[in-house]
Design brief:
Layout (H helix, E strand, L loop, with lengths): L2 H12 L9 H17 L4 H16 L9 H16 L14 E6 L6 H14 L5 E6 L6 H12 L3 E2 L7 H15 L3 E6 L7 H14 L3 E7 L4 H14 L3 E5 L8 H10 L3 E5 L7 E3 L2 H8 L5 H11 L2 H12 L5 H13 L3 H5 L5 H5 L10 H8 L3 H5 L6 H11 L3 H35 L1 H4 L1
Parallel strand pairs: 1-4, 1-5, 2-3, 2-4, 5-6, 6-7
Antiparallel strand pairs: 7-8
Helix pairs in contact: 1-2, 2-3, 3-4, 4-11, 5-6, 7-8, 9-10, 17-19, 19-20
């Protein structure tokens, strides 16, 4: 996402590099290019124009420090304005009431049902909630079944009434059911249409009035660009929703919806969908997104994703094994599994500052670990725990079993050996440094 915009802004801001100071002439040239970049990203014309004018006003009003180059100052100004454009602060969900009711709205095909499942899963695993999903789309064929399958996959119950065709009654009964059975969160999936129509608006307005939700979220397909923004305005005029969900941000999106929607409806983007998996959901942080657009990476989000997957006790156990040179292929396979849970590999790599631009033309497949996993899974448990016993005959069997070649098996063994040696070296050096520090500590000598 934002790949083309990032490239264009990078080229635009390079115009100021080497300039001794910011002047009205060189800033006008730079911002003209920035405005074009925003328009190409499908940002609303008025928003792009206001953005450029605001940055220009701030730039010309700056007392540029001698230690800061004009190009760096401009990057900071554009960064801060991008973050402000997308909402500035991270917006929280209003889910303190018991039970909290979240009403999902949006057009058909926006990913509303899938996102309902993702959100329920997120709030269950990250916030300790006990959610109930409610199937109120009584029109789309198999919509109720789709929600039930999602609910089954993530271990969350789905309330539905097969013979009831009134979504308002279903929603009211679902809330009663939640109160009676101890659910502290209700997520209501409503019907979408191919276009905004009066019948649809009346129906969802009636559901809102009947259940009085604590949070109304408008789900929009970010691939639709400015159309998404226009639809959001129509829904907001009628429902006065609380926040926006942008789905399909992992697709070929230019980013116009993310950059325009806050200015048009004055409602924050709360979450973004970044893939098909149930875990592919991110809280929307405007500041971090601005970092990524300008190629600065997003280390904070990367660390957070890692912390979610890596257990502290497990990390200590691994450290002890590494120190004793006992790290084996079972441990290696487990680490691969945890990395895969963190999300799309290219997306993860782009969070590292400077890496995003370097890999933008590379096709990093999510199945990048497939061959490695196949080789390891073709080993016996003894071979995984003691790779040293792998002779020519065993390697041939493993290659045949994994559909790879002996050369690929040898390559993995070599890489594994080097990784294990490097990990042990780092662990040992850390321990020695700690001992030296403790030895130099006067308090320890008493």
């Amino acid at each position: 996402m934002f790949e083309n915009l990032s490239d264009r802004l990078d080229r635009s801001l390079k115009l100021l590099k080497g300039e001794g100071r910011i002047t009205e002439i060189n800033i006008a040239e730079t911002l003209k290019d920035v405005r074009r970049a925003l328009l190409d990203a499908d940002v609303n014309f008025k928003i792009a124009k206001t953005f450029a004018e605001t940055v220009k006003e701030k730039a010309l009003g700056q007392d540029v420090l001698k230690s800061v180059k004009p190009g760096q100052m401009m990057v900071k100004l554009v960064h801060d304005e991008l973050a402000a454009l997308m909402g500035g602060d991270t917006a929280e969900l209003n889910i303190k009431t018991n039970p909290s009711i979240i009403l999902m709205a949006g057009l058909q095909g926006s990913g509303k049902t899938t996102f309902s499942g993702k959100l329920a899963n997120f709030l269950k695993t990250k916030k300790g909630k006990t959610p109930l999903l409610v199937a109120c789309d009584v029109y789309r064929p198999a919509a109720i079944q789709q929600l039930k399958i999602l609910g089954e996959n993530i271990g969350i119950p789905v309330y539905s009434e097969e013979n009831q065709k009134d979504p308002v009654k279903i929603a009211k009964e679902a809330v009663k059911h939640a109160k009676m059975h101890g659910y502290n969160l209700v997520i209501i999936d409503t019907a979408g249409r191919l276009a905004v129509d009066e019948e649809m608006m009346n129906e969802i307005a009636n559901i809102k009035e009947a259940v009085n939700p604590h949070e109304i979220l408008f789900v929009v397909d970010s691939m639709t660009g400015q159309d998404a923004v226009n639809t959001a305005k129509e829904f907001n005029d009628r429902l006065d929703f609380d926040g926006v969900i942008l789905t399909k941000m992992d697709g070929d999106t230019r980013g116009g919806a993310a950059l325009s929607i806050k200015s048009i409806v004055n409602k924050p983007i709360k979450f973004i969908g970044t893939g098909e998996k149930m875990e592919a959901l991110d809280i929307f942080h405007p500041n971090r997104m601005a970092d990524r657009i300008l190629g600065m990476g997003d280390i904070v989000s990367l660390v957070e994703k890692a912390q979610e997957q890596f257990d502290e006790e497990e990390a200590k156990r691994l450290q002890r094994k590494i120190a004793k040179n006992q790290f084996n292929f079972n441990d290696f396979l487990q680490q691969i599994g945890q990395i895969k849970k963190m999300g799309n590999l290219k997306d993860l790599a782009s969070m590292i500052p400077g890496v995003g631009k370097a890999i933008k033309d590379l096709d990093i497949d999510d199945d990048a670990f497939k061959g490695i996993e196949a080789i390891i899974q073709s080993m016996t448990n003894q071979e995984r725990e003691t790779p040293e016993i792998l002779n020519a005959g065993r390697k041939k069997r493993i290659a045949d079993g994994s559909g790879t070649s002996i050369q690929e098996v040898n390559r993995l063994l070599k890489q594994f050996d080097e990784t294990r040696r490097m990990m042990r070296m780092m662990t040992t050096n850390k321990g020695q440094q700690l001992k030296q520090m403790m030895g130099k500590n006067p308090a320890r000598k008493r």
